[in-house]
What does this fold into?
Amino acid sequence: MLDAIRSRDDDRGVALTAVLGIGVIVMILAATMVGLSTSGATKSASDRDYANAMAAAYAGLADYQSRVNADNTYATKYGDSGQPFSTGNTFPNRTGDNAAFTTWVAVPDSTGAGGSTFYRYAVDNSIYGQQGIVRVQVTGKAGNTTRTLVANVKPDGFSNYLYWTDYESGDPDITGEDCSNVYQNATFSNSPGGGKSACSRIQFQDGDTLNGPIRSNDVMLICGGTFKNTVQSAVGTTDYGCSPKRTPSYQYYSGYAPETVGSYTPPSTISAGRDRMYTDDTAITTTTPGTGCLYTGPTQITFLGNGKMTVRSPLTLKTNLQKSGPNYGSEPTKCGAIADLQGAGATLSTSLLANNLVYVQDEPASAGSGSSTNPNYYWSKYTTRNAPSACMKSPSVTDNGLGFPYTGPISGYSGTYSESVPRNAQGDPVPFSTAYGCSNGDLFVSGKVDASITLSAENYVYITGDLQYVANRAASTVLGIVGQEAVMVWNPMYFSGASAYAFLADNRTVAGAILSNQGTFTVQNYAYGGGRGTLTVNGSIAQRYRGAVGKGANGYLKAYGYDTSLASYTPPFFPQPVVTTYKVTSQIEVKPAYDGGGSPR
It folds into this structure.
């Protein structure tokens, strides 16, 4: 029996078992490969939707940017206050014909037809007035995937440039030249007509270093110099007539050359700032900063760097206005008590004026009547006999109520001296009634700034000492300095025969965004008194006419640098070009604001 059993003990059936085993393994591998392939396809589609959703968001941002560039008032007029991101905003024109404010809009494909990705957006313009920024929340959708970014969109204004001018020639009212300004060509052959010669071009030359973007509406005469950022002109640049002629250094990038761009037009007046002073205008009073502070006639502001500032304004009667009687004005505490303003000075909190405007107006020509009543006509209340500051209305008073013209010591000499009548570059005197007129809206400012604020004067701004930010200031703390007729570095002189003696120590530092929409940024008496050291500007300079700060061996050397904070933050209620373009200054991705169905998250 054992032999019989052993005779049948072979390998029959083993092959079948092996085949079945291998088959099972192959089936498992195939199933795994199918699973992996399906998973990969799902993952690939998910990745594609994720990327396309952000691309759609960028398309929506570009759409909004094109709309504000086509209509510079679009940001203040159009939107949907019902969207969570726009809560508290007011849009007088509502959404207009723009469906993207309320629903998904298809991104056009290559043929212009609606594609398979979508966008929608909401805007927040609550800080547009103070900082010139509109915040845009844009959500893109691809499939059921949504992604959201928030961007700051800001107009390309004057403070975006270290140096901006309308004309590359001087202001005849300041220089004393007998000429007229005209936009020039490369050979300076344009004539202003009217029997006047064209005002002299002011050139860039070796030794000039500009560390920031510069732009002009006029042809730039470049005879040398170092330019570390963009150089843009509506006309171009030239070296025609340079003597000596040097090769300028353009260092923005290797091979960079000056660019030709469109022109910007400065506003004809800064009076829109004064319009913010009405306490019975709900469009002003319902905003976060509310009304600013209005001062009349010569006004002196000194920033103390400790959250305080002092203000003297002898002719001010009301620091806010009203459109109806009986008083047509008021005196809010934040702007100072009238008795203090007319006396030794009022001490104010800079935090109460943060992101707001201080406006210095000329004394009104009359008191007016009815709806045109002006409460700051000084001489409707006082006469030269009983006025706290009679200024130059009285022959016996020789200053503007603030101590200008100046009397004081001169370094190296004993005794005190009185400031002589200023002189322009042609040697002609500038009467005190012009330089420091009692009824002029002149601002005299210095100190250390610790709040974002704009100072606007209808006549001159005099920078009477160093004007700087406090240490470790926030990037959003930016100062605006607006002098409609001129912004001047105060540089008083005592003239004795052919000699001029300076009252102030050498060197001056100025920080902030400087603008003179109808005049220039310059130095008083810049052609006299010998070298005054270095004028350091950390900020931006914008002016209708190009201003000089020295002549020959007199005046200041320039050290100008752009404050990059101004690229992101505009000083509050700072004047803008009549027509401008809008740029995206920052953007960041945030949690999706809507789901694929359009419901807020």
Summary: The chain is about 15% helix and 30% strand. The CA atoms of residues 531 and 553 lie 6 Å apart. The longest strand covers residues 531-545. The chain has a mean pLDDT of 89.
